[in-house]
Specification:
alpha+beta; paralog of FGE (formylglycine-generating enzyme); four-stranded mixed sheet; 11 strands; about 20% helix; disordered N terminus
Length: about 270
Amino acid sequence: MKALARRITLLTLSSAFFVQGVSAQAVIKDCPSCPEMVVIPAGSFMMGMPERSADPFDENLASLGGENERPQHRVTLKAFAIGKYEVTQEQWYAVMGDNPSYHKGRRGPVEQVDWATVQNFIEKLNKVTGKRYRLPSEAEWEYAARAGTTSYWSFGNDRSKLHEYAWYNYDGFQSTQTHPAGQKPANRFGLHDMYGNVSEWTQDCWHDSYTEAPTDGGTWQYSCKDEEYRVIRGGSADDRYFFVPSSTYRSREISSGANPYTGFRLARDL
């Protein structure tokens, strides 16, 4: 345990910057049925999309994204841990004793779980482990998805490579069935399925833009547009080819909603 603590400290101190070029990270597993958690170093990044270009023929990133992904702003985060994979059905069953998922499969992501039920899962897991698991903040999610990159996706801007990294609905090329965790390549932080498979709950309530958003990476749960809605990230296997979300894409779902394409991955304090 002391050795792990030293490793975490070294990772944090050596990367209190912008995480460019960072690859393999320390992995924590608190119990046999617990999710693998990747230690993400402290750092700073520009969250969201740049202001939209006035040039209608501009093919740079500034011409992309929705207005709810703006204004772009700098966020500085302390180190934290986040799930290497989306929480699986077998991990959910180990804590809750049921499996609400529509797309059944032990290693598949759990889905059809509303936000409140996820909070119940987390509360029970915390009691078992003595740790503080939680949903990631929206800022933590984007920071982890970017993995030190500034491109549209963590692998770059080439849409033709999407099928290599994400499960989505590509006109029959890939079905809308969800898939077992970790079958696609990880990003440079070692995280799998940040795009596609299932959309992921975050802790934040919905805001129409980043105006007055926190800059410390914390959860944004005040001045909500509608407290019934929570931010979801990452997109799902049901998304069509031209709508596979980027690292910055954000959407909302009613917190009482449970559908077969929304799941989650955990975050954990260090």
